[in-house]
């Protein structure tokens, strides 16, 4: 059973819609977004009832409670999501910003201008709010978006798609600017991933397996958000109180998120004074500890860590602990075992901090700041569509600007090349 | 015969070298570049004699004269290439530039800083100067580079590699910052393209077939420079003299380059007055013309064009000509048939020009400027490593800044997330 023609139609319509959305005024896009926020609340009962179908099916299929919770899209969450769309309305339009200007010796006035990317394919799992959030950000940045959520949320997503259609129509924008792929078949996704002439960017949000599969399968540029194996390095000149508070905050304030702490590195010169109390505190908080030999020499209750622990994204109350000889060893550990997401140093020594900030090859590198602040909202991007661990196009939290590209514009008076 | 271990070693060494080169001072990188420029001239005889081997083999293998010419790396070209390296020394170091700064409400000082990408794999065909130019740009931007040139140029490239090794050593930089893959075997390239944990970016320079093959084969981000199907649209309010001069310039000043004109679009309202004289002039210059029915009604000597002509990158003295109803039709033609490279409008009407600049979805969009100016040097980038027709990461001429990514740096005083 082929989805070739069906997906070609979806992507072709998205491409045509993208051309329209790319050049409309901010007010038109904002009108569509405001209308969508309004309709989400107005039609909440309908969305809730579609969501109830998905939840019932999920229960029948034995989905885990955490999964069912992610799937749930009740009135309160719908209203919160609608409020998020209104926040996107208030953000400045990224399109049209002049990124650079120059008049060349031949009189040609050159500028680099931010423009939409075109058509974006979002691939995600069960959370239905992504069907709202991602579409709002893509649309605000002047893109068309194709939304391919998990099959568990299919009824909810289709109900949300109806809201988008109505909102776009009310603003005079093409319905194909936001499309939900309503077939759960994997073959349909496979067809979409082939359409590199019609789709400009793929953003998979979900587990590493999903992301790797998409990146392998498609020649369309893909923004990858792999693991967040975040490290905190306690330098020998650290304020021990700050280092303790920050370790506890980064590990325990919320564990299931990509900017939570996974590995604690402690300078050998401070380990004896710092580690025993710190480990005791973490254990009190319910954190399971896995450490190197030197850590275990200071606290024999710590289980031995293996190389797998240095690369682990636990997303749970587990922490890997390693004593390192010095700053260079800490940096080498992070560049070898980290995931290039977010890493932080605690120290009073500015020179040491600056060396760390320069040498750690990660999207976000912090000094005396908890890894938990690696977040589009905390960075002032207003909202984020994900956190990229890629180095190309976008790195770290991605907001509206990262959903754009640029073009070069030259204005002249008949310049010829001699 | 497996190249797995050999290529793993090359890429691993590049990665380690990249970490070093990323953090050294500009002066160290510049010292290596200056030394390389000096050594190229000093060791020109040795390079010429290696090149003579390649040329002799090329002749034996019946390479076309144009191919042999591209392969030739005689003293004059070597000296010119060395001068190019000195120009790269004079360019500002892109690394460390602050792209944005903000103090967040919690006191965290956030900045976005330009940093090197890491390890770049350049894949190219016969021109040995790429072995110098690309390496110079990659190194200046703080990256390590793996150079995989065509097998025709292998002796020349190995001789140039020896210059790089000596220059890097003299500056105290690791030799693996610039490596030439000296095996011509395609299997070796296949192995490199798998190493997505060690190589951050692939830049293939060459024919469309090569680029597509690399993009299909590898999950490493790839900068694609496909065809340059450049369009010139003569609006009905064009200065006819300027339109004629620009058409002739863009088509005939140099034909084998990606920013040469391939399709002329003429507004129906000006076609009768403009086209016959323009086509006569082009024919005098030796241009073969292929046109739509309306063009042929004005000049029956024009051969009929097919859809293939609208998508053709002739790179030769051939031009496709189409009469279009209006600006919208011209834009639709370009967005449908062009390659997103460079397109220009000739008009005195500012509103029409601005609409064209906004609506054409190409890397470079010009008003009253010849398409031939789409070039890193003309744009003031100092030098270019290619012209990207991709929308992601880099679009249009790519200079030093486009060989960099960025990282987010936050400096605080113990910020915890509440």
Give the SSE layout:
The structure is a homodimer of 418-residue chains.
Chain A: H1 4-23, H2 26-42, H3 44-60, H4 65-71, H5 75-90, E1 98-103, E2 109-116, E3 119-123, H6 129-140, E4 144-148, H7 154-170, E5 178-180, H8 186-192, E6 201-204, H9 208-217, E7 230-234, H10 240-252, E8 261-267, H11 268-284, E9 288-291, H12 293-298, E10 303-304, H13 307-310, E11 318-324, H14 327-337, E12 342-346, H15 350-359, E13 364-369, E14 386-388, E15 396-398, E16 404-415
Parallel strand pairs in A: 3-4, 3-6, 4-5, 7-8, 7-12, 8-11, 9-10, 9-11, 12-13
Antiparallel strand pairs in A: 1-2, 2-16, 14-15
Helix pairs in contact in A: 1-8, 2-5, 2-7, 3-7, 5-6, 10-11
pLDDT averaged over residues of chain A: 95
Low-confidence stretches of chain A: none
Q: How would you characterize the largest beta sheet of chain A?
A: 7 strands, parallel
Which percent range describes the beta-strand content of chain A?
Answer: 15-25%
Give the count of helical stretches of chain A: 15
Q: N-to-C terminal Cα separation of chain A, in Å?
A: 58 Å
How many DSSP E strands of chain A? 16
**Largest protein-protein interface:** A-B, 66 and 66 residues
Compute the CA-based radius of gyration of chain A. 24 Å
Number of domains of chain A: 2
Instruction: Return the CATH architecture of the largest domain in chain A.
Output: 3-Layer(aba) Sandwich
CATH topology of the largest domain in chain A: Aldehyde Dehydrogenase, Chain A, domain 1
CATH class of the largest domain in chain A: Alpha Beta
Oligomer type = homodimer
Strand order of the largest sheet of chain A: 10-9-11-8-7-12-13
What structural class results from the helix and strand content of chain A? alpha/beta
Q: Approximately how much helix is present in the residues of chain A?
A: 40-55%
The named CATH superfamily of the largest domain in chain A: Aldehyde Dehydrogenase, Chain A, domain 1
């Amino acid at each position: 059973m082929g989805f070739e023609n069906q997906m070609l139609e979806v992507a072709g319509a998205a491409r045509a819609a993208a051309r329209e959305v790319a050049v409309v005024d901010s007010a038109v896009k904002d009108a569509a977004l405001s209308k969508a926020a309004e309709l989400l609340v107005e039609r909440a009962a309908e969305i809730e009832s579609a969501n109830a179908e998905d939840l019932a099916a999920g229960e029948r299929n034995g989905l885990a409670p955490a999964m069912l919770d992610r799937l749930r899209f009740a009135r309160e969450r719908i209203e919160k999501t609608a409020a998020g769309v209104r926040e996107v309305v208030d953000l400045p339009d990224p399109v049209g910003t002049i990124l650079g200007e120059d008049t060349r010796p031949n009189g040609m006035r050159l500028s680099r201008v931010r423009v939409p990317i075109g058509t974006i394919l979002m691939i995600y799992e069960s959370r239905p709010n992504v069907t709202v959030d991602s579409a709002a950000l893509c649309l605000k940045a002047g893109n068309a978006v194709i939304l391919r959520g998990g099959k568990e949320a299919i009824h909810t997503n289709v109900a949300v798609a109806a809201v988008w259609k109505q909102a776009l129509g009310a603003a005079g924008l093409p319905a194909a600017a936001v499309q939900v792929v309503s077939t759960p078949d994997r073959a349909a996704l496979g067809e979409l991933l082939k359409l590199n002439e019609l789709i400009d960017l793929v953003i998979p949000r979900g587990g590493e397996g999903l992301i790797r599969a998409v990146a392998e399968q498609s020649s369309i540029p893909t923004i990858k958000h792999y693991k967040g194996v975040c490290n905190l390095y306690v330098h020998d000149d650290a304020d021990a109180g700050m280092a303790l508070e920050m370790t506890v905050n980064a590990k325990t304030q919320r564990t299931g998120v990509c900017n939570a702490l996974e590995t604690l590195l402690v300078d050998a010169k401070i380990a004896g004074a710092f580690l025993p109390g710190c480990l005791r505190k973490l254990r009190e908080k319910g954190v399971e500890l896995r450490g190197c030999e030197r850590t275990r020499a200071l606290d024999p209750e710590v289980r031995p860590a293996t190389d797998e622990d240095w690369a682990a994204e636990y997303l749970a109350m587990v922490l890997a602990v390693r004593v390192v000889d010095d700053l260079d060893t800490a940096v080498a550990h992070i560049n070898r075992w980290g995931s290039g997401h977010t890493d932080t140093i605690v120290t009073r020594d500015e020179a040491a901090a600056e060396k760390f900030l320069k040498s750690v090859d990660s999207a976000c590198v912090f000094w005396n700041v908890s890894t938990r602040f690696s977040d589009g909202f905390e960075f002032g991007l207003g909202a984020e569509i994900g956190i990229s661990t890629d180095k190309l196009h976008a790195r770290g939290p991605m907001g509206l600007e990262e959903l754009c590209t640029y073009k070069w514009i030259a204005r002249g008076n008949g310049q010829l090349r001699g």
